[in-house]
Amino acid sequence: MANAIRKSKTKILLDGGDPHETLRIKNLLGFLDGQTTNPTYVARNPDVQKKIASGRKLSRDEQKNEYKMIVQQISPLVGDAGVSIEVYADFETTAEQMLAEGEEMYSWIPNAYIKYPCILEGLRAARLSVERNIRVNMTLCFSQEQAAAVYAATRGAREPVYISPFVGRLDDGGEDGMALVRNIKIMYRQGDHHVHVLTASLRRADHLLCAIALGSELVTAPAKVLEQWAAQEFPLPDAEYQYRALDAKGHPLKTIPYKELDLNAPWESFDLRHELTSKGIERFVADYRSTLTPAA
Ligand code: E4P
Q1: Is 137 in the pocket of ligand 1 (CB under 6 A)?
Q2: Tell me: the pLDDT tens digits for 194-217?
Q3: Is 76 exposed, middle or buried (0-12, 13-18, 19+ CB in 10 A)?
Q4: Which among 5, 164, 186, 271 would be 20 to 30 A from 122, CA to CA?
């Protein structure tokens, strides 16, 4: 089966935080190129949940240690797309604080990518990281402007930089998330290809097919989407493939128009604001705190 799926150049990653699940999905596909994790998945990890269920919450150090153990178990199971590890970031976290945590996390495993959010301080942390040859994955991307800023801020990176447009969360709000992926791919054609698109926040197998059809370099999907794809016997998009931009109820999603943006402009000149990026940070902070002792 792996050979048939490998006809596509798109790398397939699992979105999750449970090493047992990683192994199960790797066996199902016959391979796994990489994995993305985030604070929500760490909070949902079965070992972490068991501790919480027994009435025990974690200190910051214990929580970080749990995260480290999770990624250390996942790391040898996946291929060269690596394991993405997310730093803690709220609206007050500075780039230097994100970088310090990112440097620590980067030392946990040999194939780490450090996730920073697409906000001003996250972009500054990314710039500082690529200067130190730390691989990065820019997360919570909801706009073409953010993608342009990521491109400009990480120019000169020795290794590919990942950018993660969150398709499903845009769809949830009635906008066609795949249109954002298409727009970013078109915009990046004028560039030097140092940023790779990692289509994220998938809700169904059709998102996966569309990401492949658009030439997304990587795609990350939760286990249930990869299982859905397996149940359909791993279809790949052919020349006739057409994506239907519909919500869960079958209503058409609003398209996101393409914008002409100059990738050579200074990264600080792009408008990074997006409501879903702010909401995403709030959600990750809440999930991060959900397993911590109140005093921590
Ligand atoms: C990507 O790296 C994220 O983990 C992700 O895809 C989150 O998606 P969600 O919208 O399902 O939370």
Answers
A1: no
A2: 999 999 999 999 999 999 999 999
A3: exposed
A4: 186
